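I have been asked to look over a protein record a colleague put together. The record follows directly below this note.
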Amino acid sequence: MILPKVAGKMRGLLVKPAKAVGKAPGVIVVHENRGLNPYVEDVARRLATAGFVAFAPDALFPLGGYPGSDDEGRTIQAKRDPAQMTEDFIAAAEWLAKHGACNGKMGVVGFCYGGGMANTLAVRLPELILAAVSFYGRQPADADVPKIKGALLIHYAENDAKVNEGWPAYEAALKEAKVRYNAHLYPGTNHGFHNDTTPRYDEAAAKLAWERTITFFKETLEAK
């Protein structure tokens, strides 16, 4: 799939439910800080299996795309302009919402860098993003929290001090703005615990977090 935007062109993996009857809700899948690797592609397929139209953009495409190595991907992603990447993911969400297989109800899920981007899309596209799931992602600025209109599901690893230090202020801002949210802290886990291709993978926590994610999307995006 090719998307026109500030990067010139973007590419990603689009996965549709095999047994879809009519149009289905859409979910943008935002990768970590290393591009659209096989792990994130698999996440998109899992969403399609659950009945959603999933689109996982590759922010590295303007620089050649995911290189086949997470370490190389991390180096390449660091060369991209963060503001431009944000606009690329905004364009991806707007594109998917208008896709013929999508009914216009939109969610987003992201991991690490992508978790922060999930929060950003909830802020930047409040009328479009009905549900945002952040896995150990950076929090938005407190002043931006009142812009959020969708519901949030937030997953944190216990041993992730750098990310977690922003949670108290974020939670206070969410409560002040009356944003709908649920947050979970997974004991004994490290940043990246959902990624089953790394030593940080925690099977029990990853499965529980994913079950909660699918339930959340079904409750928010499939509601009449």
